[in-house]
Specification:
3 helices; 74 residues; 46% helix
Length: 74
């Protein structure tokens, strides 16, 4: 699951020096905009055939947060 999330994410950002880790922050480390994040989340929803509520995004700041959230939905 983590690898697939990273694959989707790399469609929106260049891999940072040192690579992606569970602690990589979407905004602080990857400089993603809210539009980037929402578009990426749409791709994640399509890939895992789930719907992520916008209110649930308030607690998702890192790759690890997103993976943990997806594990509760898939």
């Amino acid at each position: 699951m983590y690898e697939k999330i990273c694959e989707i994410l790399l469609n929106y950002v260049d891999e940072p020096e040192g690579g992606l880790t569970a602690d990589t922050k979407f905004v602080d480390d990857l400089a993603m905009t809210s539009l980037d994040i929402m578009t990426m989340i749409g791709d994640v929803e399509d890939e895992f055939d789930i719907e992520i509520e916008t209110s649930d995004l308030h607690g998702i700041f890192t790759l690890g947060d997103l993976e943990a959230y997806l594990k509760t939905k898939v």
